[in-house]
Design a protein that fits this description.
Helix content is 39%, strand content 18%. With 196 residues, the chain is of the alpha/beta class. It is elongated and about 60 Å long.
Length: 196
Amino acid sequence: MNTKQPFSTNDRVDFPISLYAATKKSNELMAHTYSHLFHLPTTGLRFFTVYGPMGRPDMAYFSFTKKILEGKTIDVFNNGEMKRDFTYIDDIIEGIIRVIDKVPQTTHSEITNATAPYKIYNIGNNQPVTLRRFISAIENACQKKAIEKHLPMQPGDVPITFADIDELEKDINYRPQTSIEDGINKFVKWYIEYNK
């Protein structure tokens, strides 16, 4: 529920808005504990709204593409004003590959005396995109206009996600590059071919 943008890996994340977010936080806490107790180097990766071919079919971009192509209505929450740091799968994979060989060094907590070879990186596009622009990219790639049903913001949702990737750039010299238009074009092309 942080309001500070972009989301830094140095921010406290003690007030998750959903069970999904709470499970991510608990995973990071357990990883840190293992790193501290057993000096096991641990790297945590926070992915920001990953999309692309062979992704999760329950994600919005899958259902939007399917429904737009079929001429069915899509649900648009918060008038499409939410922003997401959509990150194309190829950019995520490149970030993972580059981080693999970057073993975290032992650090000392600024709050406690804990030491651990532990590091967290955000991998995100670092460019929040409105849901409206996201839908437009799908419409353009499908060459078909969406039929929209407007609904209020869902409980447990947030108005914006935005990855601070300063640590990623500093430590591994990497910044995701794929624009939402290019990524959606690649996805829709794959989707149509896959579903023939």
